[in-house]
Amino acid sequence: MSLDIFMSTLARAFSYVLPIVGVIALIYLILFLKQLIETLKQVSKTLDTANDQLKKLDAPLKTAENISTTVDEVNQSAKEAFVSVMSSLSENVQNAKEWKEKNPNLKGNQRDYADIRQLLVLCNIENLNAIMINDNIPQSIRIEKLNKVAIQQLEILENNKNLEELKTNSIKQIDTKQK
Fold it and tell me: How far from the centroid of its chain's Cα atoms is residue 97's Cα?
């Protein structure tokens, strides 16, 4: 009987203590959840701050990338310009060599024997060529356009009756007349 009384007393005691322990456990659980929520808010703020810092770091990296791209483009343009200049120079040297071979008795160069209208057209197409090189127009297209312009300008100058004297006089002849 003493065991029955003990168990009965123990059951009564636990019936009073158990709800109190449950309330205490709920309070601890609420405090734990509140602390967890605050910790998650701090982690969220930390992540936002880290994200902002990454965005700040991204701007200089984008700038560096843009500069690198620009340098690459300038380098490529410089290479293309150099190749174009060397090609034109080689072509001009070849043309001058061919002229010398065809005219071994003449002194000077082709320009010394060109008439004024030819020199005027040559000056114009040289200027147009410089502009087209600056605009990165490929050599093949430049040659085609410059050839058309030269032919058109020579035809205009040839068909102008007011410029008859320009057709017959070369620079050497004009220099001789002036002396």
Answer: 40
